[in-house]
Amino acid sequence: MTPQLIKFKNDGLLLEDEKSSDPKKISMTDKQTITMIAAAAQNNELGKNNDLIWHISEDLKRFKRLTSGHPIIMGRKTFESMPKALPNRTNIVLTTKKDYKPVGAIVVNNINDALSLVKDDQQPFIIGGGEIYRLFMDHCSRIELTRVHHNFEADVFFPEIDLTKWSLIAQEDFTSTKDQPYNYSYLTYDKI
Ligand SMILES: NC(=O)c1ccc[n+]([C@@H]2O[C@H](COP(=O)([O-])OP(=O)(O)OC[C@H]3O[C@@H](n4cnc5c(N)ncnc54)[C@H](OP(=O)(O)O)[C@@H]3O)[C@@H](O)[C@H]2O)c1
After folding, report:
1. Mutate to test the pocket of ligand 1, among 132, 137, 153 (most ligand atoms within 8 A of CB)
2. Beta strand pairing status for 91-94 and 72-75?
3. Where are the domains of the chain?
4. Cβ proximity of 186 and 62 under 8 Å
């Protein structure tokens, strides 16, 4: 994988020669940073037939690195699209079903209960899917978006990011390689 361009819009966020997306280098205050993390293609495509569409192993490793040790909140459909609960993270699943008992996850029936469960963590993550990103858009203060520069058939989409409310604070671009055919970028947005 070849990093092509790293841009940092706010002074002091990251050093320009540090080709790393380690989240610890992005400024964090004492305030909680509820973070949505998603990979979306050119037209905001997220998934199809309750599955992911592409496979970018570096992005999956980054997802694991960023989210490990933090609670992750997801919709029931995303939870069911995974083989099992993700290790080293408290898995929280939103569903309207009152008797839902997934293995390895805590169930909540509304957004307030989800937020209250994660209130003591400095950076809880909202990991999808489309319905849950929409639901949490106004409750988050950061978006870690992997933008895949390609169009795909999809049936679930990431919501539009309103640039009057969100500011792009970091961008890291990668070109395709023989192992994975798509150019992609890590985009970090903070709520203005
Ligand atoms: N590319 C990415 O980064 C990424 C990340 C995650 C997921 N995905 C993809 O996204 C797709 C799944 O997304 P999706 O939008 O279909 O489903 P989803 O957001 O994962 O889950 C939707 C479910 O969440 C529950 N829910 C939603 N709002 C709720 C509320 N206010 N209160 C309680 N429960 C609520 C409902 O569960 P019940 O029906 O049980 O009530 C609803 O059916 C899959 O294709 C997956 O692979 C992609």
Report:
1. 132
2. parallel
3. 2-9+32-191
4. yes
Residue 21 alpha carbon to ligand 1 centre in Å = 27
pLDDT tens-digit map of 120-131 = 999 999 999 999
Lowest mean pLDDT, pick from 17-31, 53-67, 129-143, 178-192: 17-31
Task: Report the run of H or E that residue 91 belongs to, with start and end.
Answer: strand 91-94
pTM (predicted TM-score): 0.90
DSSP string for 45-93: EEEBTTB-S---HHHHHHHHHHHTTS-EEEEHHHHHHSSSPPTTS-EEE
Rounded CA separation 53/170 (Å): 25
Query: Would you call 61 helix, strand, or coil by DSSP?
Result: helix
Which of 131, 147, 129 shows the shortest CA–CA distance to 188? 147
The mean pLDDT of 90-99, rounded to a whole number, is: 98
Distance between CA atoms of residues 184 and 56, nearest Å: 9
Q: What is the mean pLDDT of residues 75-87?
A: 98
* pLDDT of res. 7: 43
Quote the tokens at residue 106: 């805590």
CATH class (in words) of the domain with range 2-9+32-191: alpha beta
Whole-angstrom CA distances from 80 to 106, 121, 167 are 14, 25, 32
Which atom of ligand 1 is the closest one to the Cα of 100?
Answer: 40
Write phi, then psi, for 115 (nearest 5 degrees).
-65, -35
Q: How far is the CA of 11 from the centre of ligand 1 (A)?
A: 36
